Amino acid sequence: MSPRLRRFPEQRFVGTRDDMRVYDCDDGDAFAALEARVELENLVGDGLVSSFGPDSLAEARNRGFAEEGAA
Predict the structure, then answer these.
(1) Between vectors from CA 65 to CA 18 and to CA 41, what angle results, nearest 5°?
(2) Alpha carbon 23 to chain centroid distance?
(3) Which of 2, 16, 18, 32 lies 20 to 30 Å from 40, alpha-carbon distance?
(4) Nearest to 69 by CA among 34, 17, 45, 38
(5) How far apart are CA 58 and CA 29, in angstroms?
(6) What would the pLDDT profile of 8-48 be if each residue is shown by its tens digit?
(7) Are strands 13-16 and 21-24 parallel, antiparallel or unpaired?
(8) Using an 8 Å Cβ cutoff, are 52 and 16 in contact?
(9) CB-CB contact of 23 with 15 (8 Å)
């Protein structure tokens, strides 16, 4: 199974609200970047992490999130 955030164990796509970026937890580099931000910046505790229903990149984009690493 791919890695997941402890508070979002079933979510593949997780977004950060402070910069409106979405991270694909199935992508090792993207997950590492997300995990580092969550740990260092207390994003979960500050309520700055979002999941999407349905859990898809299209839904994340629909809500205004851009892919991590996108220009």
Answers:
(1) 25
(2) 4
(3) 2
(4) 34
(5) 20
(6) 999 999 999 999 999 999 999 999 999 999 999 999 999 99
(7) antiparallel
(8) no
(9) yes
Of 7, 8, 4, 14, the closest CA to residue 52 belongs to 14
Judge contact between 68 and 29, C-beta under 8 A. no
Is the distance from CB of 38 to CB of 49 less than 8 angstroms? yes
Given this model, what pLDDT does residue 1 score?
60
Q: In angstroms, how far is the first alpha carbon of the chain from the final one?
A: 29
Q: Give the number of other Cβ atoms within 10 Å of residue 62's Cβ.
A: 10
Q: What's the CA gap between 24 and 45, in Å, rounded?
A: 21
pTM: 0.90
pLDDT at 3 over 90: no
